[in-house]
Amino acid sequence: MSSELLESTSSGVIGRSPRQLAWRRFRSNKTGLITLSIATFLILSTVFATLLRDIFGLDPRARYNDLMNSQGFPTGGFNGISWAHPLGLEPGIGHDLLSRLLFGARTSFFVALIVTLSSVSIGLIMGILMGYFRGAVDSTLGRFIDFLLAFPAFFMIVALSLPMVQRLEATGLVEGNSARMTYLVLILIFFGWPYLARIMRSQVLSIRERDYVMAARALGASQRRIIFKEILPNLWTVVIVYLSLSLPGYLTAEAVFSFLGLGVQPPDATWGLLISDSIKYVINNPTYFFIPSTALILVVLTFNLLGDAVRDALDPRSEVT
Amino acid sequence: MFKTKTGSSRRGRRAFSGVVALSLLSGVLVSCSSSSGGAGGTLTFLTNSESWTHADPNRNYTGQHIAWFGSYMHRTLTAYARAEGAAGSEVVPDLATDTGRSSNGNKTWEFTLRDGVKFEDGSDITCEDVKYGVSRTFATDVITDGPTYAISMLDIPSAADGSSVYKGPYKADGNDTAAYDKAVTCSEDNKTITFNLKRAVGDFNYTVTYLSFSPVPKAKDTGDQYDLAPVSSGPYKIEKYKAKDEMVLVRNESWSKDADPIRNAYPDKIVVRFGVAEEVRDQLILNDSEPAAFSLDSVLPTNLATVFNEDGTPKEEWKSRALNVYDPYVTYTAVNVGKVPCVQIRKALYYARDFAALLQLGGGPAFGGDPADGVIKPLMGLDYKPVTGLEDFKPEGNPEKAQALMAEAKTACPDVYAKATGPGLTFDVGDTDTNKKSATIWIDSVKKNTGINLKFNFIEPGQYYAVVLDPTKQGDLSRAGWAPDWANASTVIPELFLEGAGFPLSNVGKDPAYAEFKQRAEANLSEPDRAKQGAEWAALNQYVMDQMWVIPGVFSKTQEIWGSKLEGIFFWEPQGAPSFGDIKVKS
Fold first, then answer.
1. Cα Rg for chain A, rounded, in angstroms?
2. Is B14 a residue whose pLDDT tops 70?
3. Residue-wise pLDDT tens digits, B498-538
4. Does A172 reach chain B within 8 Å, measured CB to CB?
5. Are A72 and B436 within 8 A, CB to CB?
6. CATH superfamily of the A39-314 domain
7. Which of B486, B565, B520, B490 has its CA nearest to residue B76?
8. Which residue in the set B360, B396, B439 is minimally distant from A72, CB to CB?
9. How far is CA B75 from the centre of its chain?
10. b/e for B367-378, b at 16 or more Cβ within 10 A?
11. Cα dihedral A144, A147, A148, A149 in deg (nearest 10)
12. How many CB atoms lie within 10 A of CB B386?
């Protein structure tokens, strides 16, 4: 009976979960939809890069030396752009630039994704611990975070690169490029999590004092229940927004460190390496100079806009116009 | 001798009556017809290096640096003529009054010093100063990296361990100074120096063109530190020398043109700017922002197209400001024979690599050079003969031949085969962008054609030779480059392959083929008949290639560019460097 009553009363208004609401808001945002489809396409193509290589012959290690003149410049102008090589060739060595970008994106995305997910997870856990338990936990972790934030992280990453990579190689688990990538991932996570932890801490501090948490506590709910059922769901919005904004940040960071020679080394490709190589051609082969830089700008822009759209959708207070 | 330009090969110098090399640039050279005038101004050199490798005359073994210091600061008993083409390879008197008088079957050489030759402090240069300068070479623990011909040629007995019994001027205890005093003597008037050699050296007057035979005042010698403040005997002296910053040379008032027939000394001041970023260095000259500047380094491959046509000739507007010439070097990959004792594997590497792609990366035949067939350049007429047995070489790699050799290696030397195809061979190269790309080509083509794995060890360019010349640190393969020190392959074959020689990157001592090589090479060093000696060097070059102790690269070329206010520049063949001493700054 009561259920019938409910149904009849709600006939004019459709009940929607917050998730549905957010999706509706997101759908109405054109930028969000476009960037989402581009981002999905990019991520899928990097995930299935090996498949694309086999289907379209996009082999990043294949050299097309006959398409370059004796000085190693692609023939036919505009970096040798053709149907077979839509972005032309990598001058000097003759790799197909599109497949270099594709497989380079693989490395860049891989690093950025792992770093983002790990630093967000660690930041989330630490933030909750600090905010919820306060006291000694808060002050200990808080001081440690202050310590990390006070560190000149960039210079540490540059300075520690060589010795740390050698240490990693000495363990025998990783070597060469894997070691350099492992180092980059570990150190970026190490310096990356405190930011989110701080935000989470302040969020948790305010949430734990709200009435429904008090009520749960008064009803005798366990700490685990309070953290996972009462507090955590209220943090997701912030986490997702932070995630979508730090992914492009780490993409750029990976490019910067490869550019400086700390990341992956040839024969493997990353965007940073391609950009640092292309700079030398700015005068004699400007097309090559613009392609990887433009690609990086477009990808970072896409993810940033996507992040904005996600935030707009998840945060009911900021109405999409 | 070291080759520094690419950061990956050691440079040698060569005096040799070749004429072919420069045919290419007949239209390129700036005429230096106006011998009068042109004096004055400030000449600037730009380089990416942080300092000179060495400024100490005894430690300088880089062709370009020898040419530079020889032109401006350090005088030697004899020197190369300042002339274009083959004429430059002629030896002329410098500090000495003639090009040396030999006796005793070329085992005794005498040089008499000119009157009026002075150091920068105004004191006379005497025989004792030259004798002291030469003695420093023997202090191999202090005076490192220089040529060691004084040690191998002067008649001084060897100790039990093979080193000379004379240990240089810095040691007193257990040092046989008397042996040195007997080998090098000065006349009563301190003007004539006599060298007594242990074997006949017909071209010893070429040997003494080396700066390691230049005078050093004993009172000013600070041992290792002399590298920072050497005393000048030439037309300029150091006003300032600071690594990562600059070197400033000003006129040496004690030097007089009357006592120096070969140096011109046009500019008033010479400045070397160190540590200029490569791209900045090129752009400063390409845009003529520094019209009186000369780049000491090769043009970046990416900028070659600005200056040169595709066939390697300079573009019209660059005709008077650029050179593209064969230098005296042969580049190669030394195989550490001690670690890769398997001739089939070594040959498989030679046939497997994609040589054409490597050359294209280096600018192609127009800028990189021609495929080498050994360690002796064809320009060395007497000493060169085309190497046979390499007919299966294909520029883009010959997989059939390489695989056939690998199949042989599998049974002939299973250990090396297992190592090469399993954990792989390590390959030392300088840490430069171009080398990183060439590593990709090596790895891919060798893996595809032979199954051999290559692992590259990128070494900081300034440290490269220090690392690879240390047998405990050297890998299985090392990139290098070498040129003869003068017109005789006696400065190539023995220097590269005899144990204990100047540049033994191949470590061939334990190879079964070494005994015969050693016996023939040592015998040939004192062969009096130059034609017969040359034929034997050619035969030994063939012998080396039969064993594939090195994987030959290219007979290389070099490119130079400079600003619009400079003139008088030509390629000084014997030094493999521009004619620094003839550069004038237009007013």
1. 24
2. no
3. 887 778 888 888 888 899 999 999 899 888 888 898 899 99
4. no
5. no
6. MetI-like (1.10.3720.10)
7. B486
8. B360
9. 18
10. bbbebbbbbbbb
11. 120
12. 11
Q: What is the mean pLDDT of residues B311-315?
A: 90
Fold: same for B35-74+230-326+559-585 and B78-228:
yes
How close A97 gets to chain B, by Cα (Å)?
14
Which of B278, B315, B360 to probe by mutation at the A interface, max A CB count within 10 Å?
Answer: B360
Architecture of domain B35-74+230-326+559-585: 3-Layer(aba) Sandwich (3.40)
Query: What are the tens digits of pLDDT across the range A37-66?
Result: 998 988 888 888 888 888 877 788 888 878
Which residues of chain A lie closer than 8 angstroms to B434, CB-CB?
92
Q: pLDDT tens-digit profile of B455-489?
A: 988 887 767 887 888 888 899 999 988 888 877 88
Instruction: Mark which residues 267-296 of B lie under 8 Å from A by CB.
Output: 279
The CATH class of B327-558 is alpha beta
pLDDT tens for A202-238 read 999 888 888 988 899 899 888 888 888 888 888 888 8
Are the beta carbons of A279 and B363 separated by less than 8 Å?
no
Domain edges within chain B? 35-74+230-326+559-585, 78-228, 327-558
Its ipTM equals 0.75
Distance of alpha carbon B369 from alpha carbon B6, whole angstroms: 14
Q: Is A63 on the interface with B (CB under 8 A)?
A: yes
Indicate the pTM of the whole model: 0.77
Contact check, Cβ <8 Å, A92/B361:
yes
For an interface test with A, which of B440, B444, B449, B457 has the most A Cβ atoms less than 10 Å from its Cβ?
A: B440
The CATH H-level (homologous superfamily) assignment of domain B78-228 is: Periplasmic binding protein-like II (3.40.190.10)
Contact B365 A70 (CB under 8 A): yes
CB burial of residue B448 (10 Å; 0-12, 13-18, 19+): middle
